[in-house]
Automatic annotation (TrEMBL):
<feature type="transmembrane region" description="Helical">
    <location>
        <begin position="60"/>
        <end position="80"/>
    </location>
</feature>
<feature type="transmembrane region" description="Helical">
    <location>
        <begin position="7"/>
        <end position="27"/>
    </location>
</feature>
<feature type="transmembrane region" description="Helical">
    <location>
        <begin position="139"/>
        <end position="159"/>
    </location>
</feature>
<keyword id="KW-0472">Membrane</keyword>
<dbReference type="InterPro" id="IPR000620">
    <property type="entry name" value="EamA_dom"/>
</dbReference>
<dbReference type="GO" id="GO:0016020">
    <property type="term" value="C:membrane"/>
</dbReference>
<dbReference type="Pfam" id="PF00892">
    <property type="entry name" value="EamA"/>
</dbReference>
<feature type="domain" description="EamA">
    <location>
        <begin position="7"/>
        <end position="130"/>
    </location>
</feature>
<dbReference type="InterPro" id="IPR037185">
    <property type="entry name" value="EmrE-like"/>
</dbReference>
<keyword id="KW-1133">Transmembrane helix</keyword>
<feature type="transmembrane region" description="Helical">
    <location>
        <begin position="86"/>
        <end position="108"/>
    </location>
</feature>
<comment type="similarity">
    <text>Belongs to the EamA transporter family.</text>
</comment>
<feature type="domain" description="EamA">
    <location>
        <begin position="143"/>
        <end position="282"/>
    </location>
</feature>
<feature type="transmembrane region" description="Helical">
    <location>
        <begin position="171"/>
        <end position="189"/>
    </location>
</feature>
<feature type="transmembrane region" description="Helical">
    <location>
        <begin position="33"/>
        <end position="53"/>
    </location>
</feature>
<feature type="transmembrane region" description="Helical">
    <location>
        <begin position="209"/>
        <end position="230"/>
    </location>
</feature>
<dbReference type="InterPro" id="IPR050638">
    <property type="entry name" value="AA-Vitamin_Transporters"/>
</dbReference>
Length: 296
């Protein structure tokens, strides 16, 4: 993986780590599934009107939209709304990395090197230490919902690899066309039109304005910029090489939650975060390929 792509992967991790604070602000005003529907609807309308079709098979676009978009954010938003701490959510969601490596090996036949396995094992060990430290602050249901969000993200990653879009940004934007309808329908059933309407008619309050700022960050930075870069990286590199960088997201999320939300990490969590970073760096290294003998 080129050094430029590694730096881009780190940048995406920072953007997505801060994304959890924006989600926290958004959920202070909007019902969770309705918030997810709004997030993608804001992008979907101008995309349909102005962005060219990405020239990929529809099934891969649907797979990306239902996995990365609908499944991940419906589960994640509900988990955070029902008590999942912001920092812990950023950590548990990164189970998508080992999920992606496993699914990539099973469904795409991607080879997993010893460096990758060792790096992922080290990073997961650090992540597990942080999860153990904070496990007393989250109920079982929010934890399970966040793990389902991570699994949905992993399936979305596989669809991205199979799609191989010529223009990753167009592909990411068109992905946003998929989630709004199923999420609006889920919101009507689970949250009701009264809750939706109340969240829209109180946008002039301080909480409403904060939520709008959070939604703007989630849409423009988290989705357009972050997902566009991530899609580019997944297209240029094997899924098992790119996905471990997502383990940097909880480091950013935990740090930002400490600074802005008052969530205090312990020294164990700080040490485990260092282990996570080391694991990501090791997992991103690839040994030089052996020269193959070609029969003539």
């Amino acid at each position: 993986m080129p050094a430029r792509d590694r730096l881009l992967a780190v940048l995406v991790a920072v953007l997505w780590g801060l994304n959890f604070l924006a989600i926290h602000a958004t959920l202070g005003q909007f019902p969770p599934v309705f918030a997810g529907a709004l997030r993608f609807a804001v992008i979907a309308v101008p995309t349909i009107l102005f962005v060219p079709w990405p020239k990929v098979k529809v099934r891969y676009l649907l797979g990306y939209g239902l996995g990365f978009g609908t499944g991940q954010f419906a589960f994640l938003f509900i988990a955070m709304d029902t008590g999942m701490p912001t920092g812990l959510a950023s950590l548990v969601l990164q189970a998508s990395a080992p999920f992606t490596v496993l699914l990539g090996a099973v469904f795409l036949g991607e080879r997993v090197t010893r460096h990758q396995l060792g790096g992922i094992a080290l990073a997961v060990a650090g992540m597990a230490a942080i999860a153990w430290q904070q496990s007393g602050h989250a109920a079982l249901l929010p934890m399970l919902l966040t793990l389902l969000a991570a699994l949905s993200w992993a399936f979305g990653n596989l669809s991205t690899r199979r799609a191989e879009p010529d223009n990753p940004l167009h592909f990411t934007l068109w992905m946003s066309v998929v989630p709004p309808l199923p999420m609006f329908a889920l919101s009507l059933v689970m949250e009701g039109p009264a809750a939706q309407w109340r969240s829209l008619t109180t946008l002039g309050t301080p909480a409403g304005l904060t939520a709008l700022a959070g939604l703007a960050y989630v849409v423009l930075i988290g989705t357009v910029v972050g997902s566009g870069l991530w899609t580019t990286l997944m297209r240029r590199n094997p899924a098992g090489v790119v996905s471990p960088f997502s383990l940097l997201v909880p480091v950013v999320g935990l740090t930002a939650s400490f600074l802005l939300l008052g969530e205090r990490p312990t020294w164990l969590e700080v040490g485990a975060a260092v282990v996570v970073i080391a694991g990501v760096l090791i997992g991103s290294l690839r040994t030089a390929p052996k020269r193959e003998l070609v029969a003539v």
